[in-house]
Amino acid sequence: MSDLTKPRLRFAPSPTGYLHVGGARTALYNWLYARKFSGALLLRIEDTDKARSTDESTRAIFEGLEWLGLDWDGDVVYQGANLPRHQADARRLLETGAAYRCFCTSAELDARRREAEARKEAFKYDRRCDRLSRDEVDRRVAAGEPSVIRFRVPEGATEWIDLVHDRIAFPNKDIEDFVVLRSDATPIYNLAVVSDDIAMAITVVMRGDDHISNTPKQILLYRALGAKLPTFAHLPMIHGMDGKKLSKRHGATAVGDYQHQGLLPGAMLNFLALLGWSPGGDREVMTLAEMIDLFSVEGLQKKAAIFDPKKLEWMNGQHLSMITLAELEPRVTPLIVAAGLTTAHDLQTRRDWYFRLLDLLRIRSRTLDDIVRQAGPYFLDTIEYDPTAVAKNWKDPAEAAALLRAVRETLAATPKWEAEPLEAAVRALAEIRGITAGKLFQPLRVALTGLTVSPGIFEMLIQMGRELSLQRIDAALATLSNA
RNA sequence: GGCGCUAUCGUCUAGGGGACUAGGACGGGGCCCUCUCAAGGCCCAAACACGGGUUCGAAUCCCGUUAGCGCUACCA
């Protein structure tokens, strides 16, 4: 297979904030396309807006992509480093007559725009500088008068076959002669993008819907620059639950936020993949490898999708249960250590026990934080009793204490600390006392965990071990006698 | 305002002229399981924006309306 048949794509975020979930999804689709068709995915940081770009944002983009596990080919391209080529391309446009110098100032333009608005008319640059004589242009440039370079939009219409929307067309009369080079000789977005995409030999440009109206301008630039057109694919936007463009007021929009909320990157990717793409049929929960396998442009959606955090959580729960314990462990351990439950070394020395614990807790967790929250009772010497658990299951302290004393005796007297004999013994105790087993289980659960919610009582007794279990009951008894 | 894009349950979607009394998933409700909570299983409510065509036949094709969104900078 020749390289010509291998697509070259790029993800081109501007480093003006953090890695937005919409950006992450764009990156994912580009990545999927590149991997699916054995192409290349390049990363370009669009840092030409010096006022808004920061190194910190650039780092956030790297970190986000790294966490998600989306890699790229070759070195990172910094758009700002290509300034000379952008300027050269602008000059070429001027020389070939595709563009012209414009001396209108921003202030003048603003004034005319406002006037047009007052008259309820659409403003479009009137090309007055295109009518300037060659001599006058030369004279004013020589005199040091600032000017921009404007692209002269030709007659006709500009259209393309979009990978997701099929045919899209714009009458050129609706496109104004746009600026390509500012008066300070820095390029405008559309020029920089086209210049770089040509230089990087990009063949598939996949980006957000919000760039649709830039596309005719860019196509015109490609033609004027004598370059071959890439294939365009415009992805639908992501909105918040209110149908408006997703933003901070909708809650977490940075992928870093989700990382810190205890989400799994695989779940995030899976959720994002489904927001604007479907493999067809009923397929939902997928690994990255499966997504590559199933990916196709036919499944790309045209409609904007609404970001539903509930489904993301559910998806995370699915992935939590789906991945291997070996994959799960390194994601949880740092959080357990950070929560002060124990040391990484301790967990390492009783790895089998630790894995069993994770397996016990992950089924009833939706995030990594849920797991950590539930893990406390298995590590700490002291225990916190949830007031509502106490109120509900130790309603009568004297009665609860009596029950717990009996249970303690029964457990302590059971020769083998294993689920079956333990359960048989406790159930027998319940029968002797003429109560249902549940009446015994709930107070015991509170004694062991301080909570109303936990894994099964006997799974828990085994996991905690004889010593800690009995110690917990003693502590509960002490607390109850003080009540 | 102009231009563009979009339109199936509350949400993500399947559907690409007859298989549709429109399927799945999240969320909601109910039941089962059960020592709690989850998980799991079963069931219920819930949608083709509207109006015209085309066609024997339209969720599917065309046109219009409406609505939503995007763009409309010497931002990206």
Structure notes:
Helix content is 50%, strand content 10%. It is mainly alpha-helical and 483 residues long. The strands form 5 sheets. Strands 1-2-3 form a 3-stranded parallel β-sheet. The longest helix has 26 residues, at 457-482. The chain is elongated. 33% of the residues are buried. The mean pLDDT is 94. The structure holds one RNA strand of 76 nucleotides.
Keywords summarizing the entry:
483 residues, mainly alpha, three-stranded parallel beta sheet, three-stranded antiparallel beta sheet, 20 helices, RNA-binding
The Rg value, from CA coordinates, equals: 32 Å
Low-confidence stretches at least 5 residues in length (pLDDT < 50)?
Answer: none
**Overall form:** elongated
Largest sheet: 3 strands, parallel
* Main sheet strand line-up: 1-2-3
Q: How many DSSP helices?
A: 20
* Percent helix range: 40-55%
The termini sit apart by 79 Å
Task: Determine the mean pLDDT.
Answer: 94
Structural class label = mainly alpha
The count of strands amounts to: 12
| Beta-strand percent range | 5-15%
Secondary structure layout plus pairing:
Elements lengths: L7 E4 L9 H16 L3 E6 L9 H14 L8 E2 L4 H13 L3 E4 L3 H13 L15 H9 L5 E4 L5 E6 L3 E6 L7 E3 L7 H11 L4 E5 L6 H10 L6 E5 L2 E2 L15 H6 L4 H10 L13 H7 L10 E2 L2 H14 L2 H14 L5 H6 L1 H12 L5 H8 L11 H7 L3 H17 L5 H15 L3 H13 L7 H26 L1
Parallel strand pairs: 1-2, 2-3, 9-10, 11-12
Antiparallel strand pairs: 4-5, 5-8, 6-7
The structure holds one RNA strand of 76 nucleotides.
